[in-house]
Structures are given as structure tokens and as C-alpha cells.
Amino acid sequence: MIFVCGEGLGHTSRCISIGRELVCAGHDVHFGAYGYSKELIERKGFKAHKVPSEITLVGKAGSLNLKKSILATFKRGQFLGLIKIRKLLKRTRPDVVISDSYFMGMIGAKSRSLPCHMIVNQSNMEEFFKGKGVSNMILAELVKKFYTGMFNLADKVIIPDYPLPHAVCRKNLEFKKKTWKKVFFSGPLIGKTFEETTAKELKRPHVLCTVGGFGYREPIFRKVIEAAGMDNSINYTLLSGPSVDPESLGTLPENVIILKFINDQFPYMKASDLVIAPGGHSTMMEALSFGVPMITVPDKKHNEQQNNALVIEDDGLGKKMDYSASPEEILENIKLLINDEKYRNKLSEMKELAVELNGPRAVRLLVEETANR
Fold first, then answer.
1. pLDDT per residue over 339-351, tens digit each?
2. Hey, how many other C-beta atoms are within 10 angstroms of the C-beta on 31?
3. How far apart are CA 281 and CA 297, in angstroms?
4. Does the pLDDT of residue 25 top 50, yes or no?
């Protein structure tokens, strides 16, 4: 049984990669999910059971308010859904449970004495509350205690990233000594490998931009279009999102294609020389596994994304930019990342390492060992 946090499809995509590996090895795989996450899992052909959503995300203007999110979650009483989780586990009788940041799945598994592995790429959520008053300091301590309790319950804590010192999420990892003994760096967990992906026929050099043109991200989206107009030798595919009408963007440069959505972005990624994206961990794992450098534009006040973006720049895998960047600065960094040989060499190393690690296989072997034991 794989439980998936549905707040962000990065959790879903990496769990699908695990599910596919397990099914190919002859195992019976069930998912517990909700919302669009459940729909996506079912479209991929897996058995999916509806579970209660666990957290309500609250924020505005690109900033996540974790305090309000926690309070809103408690008000909805969704933690009472644990009874449903217990019944689901009794009915399906799994040998092993994997829970990707879905804590009711963890608690439910342990209440039924089932082995459970937890997937996380951040363990320092209390960082959201630092420097924000006494009440936030108290809440930060409660959050830290809760996380510590979850890590104590887990048989293994799976980090879906490269092993140290290469882990992109390393600035977001803080564990007690006894938890570190449980930590397992699986390697990237991505929906498709480079080898099994057929590249889209695109004019090169090519830039894939997944920032989106809605809400607070619209200014940087428009700046990328403006940067594209300054040099027509570089071609672009921009994903605007379903809420944006491309015609509202005015006359586009000839080297720019705007799509609202693509079902499979891997053919585009394989055909691209650069990815421009927010600071989400899963997109970073996909780009690095395909050997593509990144310009990251992390959401403001989103500590996890900011830290991920810093590592990408520090490790020579791309550049970190913010919403104040000018079109000229964006174009300058695009040219640097496409043309500089040191970036290409570094990304080639990360691509080869991802193949060697084979994250889905590593998790399957861990699950099989747990079940046999």
C-alpha cells in the first residue's frame, strides 16, 4: 500500500515510479490518495482508494502560511480520518506500507503492526516559523515534536534524492542521531528514465519553462517571453497553466510556443537544453536525471524551495533567480547555462549517477527485504 500526500503532484509522480517498478516485479500494489492525485494514479492503471486529505494549505501571493494551514486542518477535523485508514488497511492487508508525507498512513500502519517506510525530502518544517513571534515559536516546537514522532514510527526514512554529499534537499534535512540510522537515500524517483523517453522534435537550442503564467508567477513568465524576443536563436516552450489564455499575452516572438498543459513533459525535457522552473524537488530530480541544467525561481518565503535552489547553484547545476530578475539577466543566465562546458560536464555526471542509483529499483529491493523479513 502506497499512501500519497496530494498537496503537490511531485509526491504523486515519484510514488507512481515506485508502483510501476513493484508491479513489473510481480507485486500487487494499491494506492491511497485523493483529489487530482488519485485521478492521475488511476489514469496510470493502478488500484487507488480514496483517503481523507490530511492538510489544508493556506497562503497568498506565493507565500505559504504554515501556521494557518495547520489550524485550518485541525478545524476540518480531517485527522479523524484515521478510522477510515485503519479500515482500509484491514480490508487490503498489505505486507508493507509506504507513506509519502501522508502521516495518517504512518499512524494507521503502526496501529495495525504493519512495517512502514516514510518518504520525505524535508525534515525541518519548523524553519517556516523562525523569527515570527512567540506563538509561532511554540507552534514550531510542536511541529518538530510531531515530525520526530513520525520518524520514530518509520522503519525506514526514504529520501528520494542523490546520496550525500550530492543530495539537493540536504539543506532541508535535520534528523536526530537514531533517525539518521534509518535514513535511506534511494536516488531520484522519476516517472520515466532518459533511455525509455523519446525526445520531442523541437528546434535546438531549446528552453522548457514550467513556471506558469498565473497569479504571482505571471511577472516572471512574461519576462521569460521578453527575454526570448531578445535572441531568436534560442527556442522556447512555455507552460502557461489552464487558467491562462495564451491570446491574452499579446503578440509572441516567433521562437516561443505556449502550451496550457502537457500530459508527459519527459519528451520535452529530453529535447531541451535548459529548464526554467520553481524550486520543487521532484522537477529538480527529473531535470538532473536527464542531464539538463536549471534556472530555478523559488516561491518567496518558501524555505524548502529556496534551499533547494541554493544547492542547485552552489553545486554548479544551474542558477537561482527571483521575481525581480530583469529579462536581460534571465537571457544572460540562459546563454551561460546552455553554452558553458563546465555545466554540461557536471550535468552529465548527475545523469550517469541517476542511472547507476536506479531509485525505483532501490526502493523495490528495500520493500522486498522488509516483506521477506
1. 999 999 999 999 9
2. 23
3. 12
4. yes
Q: What is the CA radius of gyration of the chain?
A: 21
Mean pLDDT is lowest, of 123-127, 233-237, 350-354, for 123-127
Contact 14, 119 (CB under 8 A): yes
The CATH code belonging to domain 2-187+358-372 is 3.40.50.2000
Asked whether the beta carbons of 331 and 230 are under 8 A apart, the reply is yes
DSSP conformational letter for 182: T
Helix (H, G, I), strand (E, B) or coil at 160: coil
DSSP, residue by residue, 85-147: HHHHHHHH--S-EEEES-HHHHHHHHHTT--EEEE-S---GGGGGTTS-HHHHHHHHHHHHHH
67 contacts 126 by C-beta, under 8 angstroms? no
Q: Are 66 and 125 in contact (CB under 8 A)?
A: yes
- Asked if 2-187+358-372 and 206-355 have one fold, the answer is yes
User: Where are the chain's structural domains?
Assistant: 2-187+358-372, 206-355
pLDDT for position 162: 98
**Nearest Cα to Cα of residue 173 among 127, 118, 123, 120:** 123
Burial class (CB in 10 A: 0-12, 13-18, 19+), 68: middle
pLDDT, average across residues 5-22: 89
CA distance 226 to 300: 22
Neighbouring-strand partners of residue 97: 116
**What are the angstrom distances between the C-alpha of 96 and each of 73, 141, 354?**
28, 31, 25
The tens digit of pLDDT for each residue in 102-127 reads 988 988 999 899 999 999 999 876 56
How many Å apart are CA 310 and CA 323, to the nearest integer?
Answer: 15
Helices 341-357 + 359-372 axis angle, to 10: 20
| Lowest mean pLDDT, pick from 181-185, 206-210, 214-218, 320-324 | 214-218
User: Contact 261/239 with Cβ under 8 angstroms?
Assistant: yes
Cell of 129: 516559523
**47-59: pLDDT as tens digits:** 999 998 875 544 4
For the domain made up of 206-355, the CATH class stated in words is alpha beta
Q: Which three cell numbers mark 143?
A: 511541529
What's 19's DSSP letter? H
How far apart are the C-alpha atoms of 76 and 70, rounded to whole Å? 10
Residue position matching grid coordinates 509526491? 11
